[in-house]
């Protein structure tokens, strides 16, 4: 099938690349000339495991193209995906100007039937707004479809190639038929393609992310309570996760959820509820608790040093909001850095992928180390904010020989508690005994 993907961010680029992998002919469009030039020269602009291979293979085989020329892409494609940003506007509601702007441009270019697909996370009613743009500008038949993505950064390629489900919001039989053909290769193991109306599809995305954010937040609160009653959150997690109704996944406590999706989507759903005069209380609490959780490591540090960390030096392992990504949007590490520096401490940081982005954002507020062990020099304690695999089994002898004191504050519960105690560490983690 002939496809255009407008917007080459995480979602657009993964979508375009993975759609070309099953034999479709895909043109990806972006207004950023620099980025397009780089991709035309074979450079993948983001770090996403597995993307490189598919990207180069499909370019070489002539199925994946990049352009800044929207008209060329629209002429080429029957199915047009919009994967554009929907940042929170000043009032917390998603800003639709990129989507409606693109719809306006597309509507002026089309000369035959097209399926226009919203891949971005958009408020309920957006498909209707996009439809209205087309109705105002053209008589050509189009179907506007909601098809939210459920990709996780870091495993986005795997998630796209083998989705748990594909959600498609449309009432058009023609669109249903074409999109079933498009997605069938991805659900061969029997996972469902779920058809529904546009509004339910749009809400499904917000409900999914908000539910997951709630699940994590619930566990963060259980963890906080565990510390007070001398229980172990790992045990409680296993105890409840074995109940299939609860499930084992997404129960890991930590230093708050971050990233470009959960914080924005929870906020947008609360806002949408407010606009409809519904007080979405549970989500308001989720937002509040998550704010508090982001600096819980700092509270622990302040308590340990009796409120005075002026002149202390810390090493921070992990900056990205989660492993296997260079994405630092809403990363808890940034809040930790801010708070510690505000209290007069200094930091050396290390992250396998996120340091460039942090440097671009906060410059020389911290010292950057190219090596996880060299980063420990002169530090009073080690702090951990991201569960990268390479932090899971470190050389503790090496850590001992460089770190000034055997003190670790771990926001991701990477190490076995008994082992740490045996090795003589002061090891403060989340929801576990000290
Ligand atoms: C999330 C959803 O999982 C995707 O399904 C969705 O498509 C995506 O948002 C989106 O809307 O685009 P992502 O933001 O990449 O994906 O990250 P997740 O892996 O879901 O993690 C989100 C946050 O929750 C991270 O800060 C992570 O550290 C935290 N988390 C996750 C926990 O604290 N505990 C857990 O057990 C799991």
Automatic annotation (TrEMBL):
Pathway: Nucleotide-sugar biosynthesis; UDP-alpha-D-glucuronate biosynthesis; UDP-alpha-D-glucuronate from UDP-alpha-D-glucose: step 1/1. GO terms for molecular function: oxidoreductase activity. The keyword Cell division does not apply. It catalyses: UDP-alpha-D-glucose + 2 NAD(+) + H2O = UDP-alpha-D-glucuronate + 2 NADH + 3 H(+). Residues 315-417 form the UDP-glucose/GDP-mannose dehydrogenase C-terminal domain. InterPro entries: 6-PGluconate_DH-like_C_sf, NAD(P)-bd_dom_sf, UDP-Glc/GDP-Man, UDP-Glc/GDP-Man_DH_C, UDP-Glc/GDP-Man_DH_C_sf, UDP-Glc/GDP-Man_DH_dimer, UDP-Glc/GDP-Man_DH_N, UDPglc_DH_bac. SUPFAM superfamilies: 6-phosphogluconate dehydrogenase C-terminal domain-like, NAD(P)-binding Rossmann-fold domains, UDP-glucose/GDP-mannose dehydrogenase C-terminal domain. Its EC number is 1.1.1.22. Keywords: NAD, Oxidoreductase. Pfam families: UDPG_MGDP_dh, UDPG_MGDP_dh_C, UDPG_MGDP_dh_N. It is an enzyme of class 1 (oxidoreductase). Belongs to the UDP-glucose/GDP-mannose dehydrogenase family. This is UDP-glucose 6-dehydrogenase. It comes from Pedobacter vanadiisoli.
């Amino acid at each position: 099938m002939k496809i255009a993907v407008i917007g080459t961010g995480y979602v657009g680029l993964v979508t375009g690349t993975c759609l070309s992998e099953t034999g479709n002919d895909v043109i990806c469009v972006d207004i950023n000339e620099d980025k397009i030039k780089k991709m035309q020269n074979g450079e993948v602009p983001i770090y996403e495991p597995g993307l490189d291979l598919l990207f180069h293979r499909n370019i070489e085989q002539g199925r994946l193209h990049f352009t800044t020329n929207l008209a060329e892409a629209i002429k080429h494609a029957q199915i047009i995906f919009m994967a554009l940003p929907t940042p929170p506007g000043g009032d917390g509601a998603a800003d639709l100007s990129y989507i409606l702007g693109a719809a306006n441009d597309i509507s002026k270019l089309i000369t035959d039937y097209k399926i226009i697909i919203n891949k971005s996370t958009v408020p309920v009613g957006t498909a209707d707004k996009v439809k209205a743009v087309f109705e105002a500008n053209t008589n050509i038949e189009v179907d506007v479809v909601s098809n939210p993505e459920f990709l996780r950064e870091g495993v986005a390629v795997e998630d796209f190639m083998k989705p748990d489900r594909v959600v498609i919001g449309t009432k058009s039989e023609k669109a249903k038929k074409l999109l079933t053909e498009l997605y069938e290769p991805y659900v061969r193991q029997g996972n469902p393609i779920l058809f529904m109306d546009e509004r339910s599809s749009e809400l499904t995305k917000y409900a999914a992310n908000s539910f997951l954010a709630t699940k994590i937040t619930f566990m963060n609160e259980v963890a906080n309570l565990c510390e007070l009653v001398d229980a172990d959150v790992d045990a409680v997690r296993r105890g409840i996760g074995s109940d299939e109704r609860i499930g084992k996944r997404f129960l890991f406590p930590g230093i708050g959820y971050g990233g470009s999706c959960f914080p924005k989507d929870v906020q947008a759903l609360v806002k949408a509820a407010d606009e409809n005069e519904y007080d979405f209380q549970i989500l308001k609490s989720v937002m509040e608790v998550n704010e508090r959780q982001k600096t819980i490591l700092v509270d622990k540090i302040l308590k340990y040093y009796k409120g005075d960390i002026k002149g202390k030096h810390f090493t921070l392992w992990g900056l990205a909001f989660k492993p296997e990504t260079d994405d630092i949007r809403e990363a808890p590490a940034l809040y930790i850095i801010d708070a510690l520096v505000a209290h007069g401490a200094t930091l050396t940081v290390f992250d396998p992928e996120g340091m460039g982005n942090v440097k671009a954002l906060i410059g020389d507020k911290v010292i950057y180390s190219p090596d996880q062990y060299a980063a420990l020099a002169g530090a009073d304690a080690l702090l951990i904010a991201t569960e990268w695999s390479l932090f899971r089994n470190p050389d503790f002898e090496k850590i001992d020989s460089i770190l000034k004191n055997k003190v670790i504050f771990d926001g991701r519960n990477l190490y076995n508690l008994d082992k740490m105690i045996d090795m003589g560490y002061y090891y403060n983690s989340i929801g576990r005994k000290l």
